[in-house]
Write a structure and sequence with these properties.
By secondary structure, this protein is an alpha+beta fold. It is 30% helix and 23% strand. Helix 1 packs parallel to helix 6, helix 1 runs parallel beside helix 13 (406-418) and helix 10 packs across helix 12 (338-350). The chain is elongated and about 85 Å long. The mean pLDDT is 95.
Length: 422
Amino acid sequence: MVWGDSVSTSITNFAPKVIKMKIGIIGGGAAGFFAAIQAKTNYPESTVIILEKSKKLLAKVKVSGGGRCNVTNSTPSISELSKAYPRGGKQLKKLFQEFSNEHTLEWFTSRDVALYAQDDRRVFPVSNDSQSIIDCLMAEVNQLDISIKMDTAVKKLEATAEGINVFFDDVNSVFFNKVIVASGGSPKKDGLRWLEKLGHEIVTPVPSLFTFNMPKEKIKSLMGVSVENATTKIQGEKLIGNGPLLITHWGMSGPAVLSLSSFGARLLADKNYQFNLQVNWTNEQSQEVVREGIQAIISEHGQKQLQNMRPYNLPSSLWLYLLNKVELPLVQKWDEIGKKGVHKLIEVLANDVYEVSGKTTFKEEFVTCGGVSLNSVNMKTLESKHLPGLYFAGEVLDIDAITGGYNFQAAWTTGFVAGKLK
């Protein structure tokens, strides 16, 4: 599906306020930009300044989706949308009433950024270039006369009678009436001490959305091979992942692995990323259904060699690998494998096991589980419960999602709500 000039959705913004304020936005990423845009739109007479500690703006937007920018997900309902968030989904469900994925589609397409959804519902710009999204956000910031200050790291915040002083070192500070923190996820709790000192509860960050390393497993020789639908489980746990699975030169990746790493982020951290991964290559088929499928092949194609009759449309190289793994001769005929052979195939197809030792995260797209606890924030307005006039947006909050555009949607939504400053 492609969206062009507009979509039929109304954004529930409120009328601009004729109030002159100085508003500081800490963080020049997706949430920071969107919060700044909304703040200036809602309070056009105010001064809005984005403070970015690095030399780069919108860094994750640039690299997301392989450089295409997975803007959002086109899942058709708010209820379904909120299920993509292992942490924060319940709270976001209410915030999505104010700014949902449909609102995101409207916002960008109304600014001449055509979008399209893939079969898996991931939404990208028609240009297939993240620069389209960056250019749109930059144009909006420039049009609204929002200032940007680079190389400006914030060290601490201090409450005053009228607002908040933002300190860049022990001495130099700037006063703001309102501040929105959109500084992104921190890989370590130390990076959030400045917010903890204000009274906010900090949930210790751990990685989310990572791939599994399998240094001892020979399946890595099949790097580049993918299976369209696989089911993954952590052995001994109830967590389940589904979707495409990609074999890499270090182990396994793809949505079936990434979703498991997201929902199991804290559990896998506790295991020090040492565990066994169970893989069902048969698109969620139970072992009994797999048995029936194998018996059907034996009945209908019994004289064919194992290597020449691939079940479940498995890639040829993967099927041959699995046959070798269970020590079934490639040239053996299907009707000669016997009960023992049938059992071996059931196990390797529906309950294959691999040893995981470690993870791989991509620095540019790093996603964390953890951050400012939602218990420390008014989840209707995203204002701090500990410092009036301080708001939060984006991944600095303990909100994160599976892969598929959901993390950016959380950035747009929280940026929109925080930008109301109410």
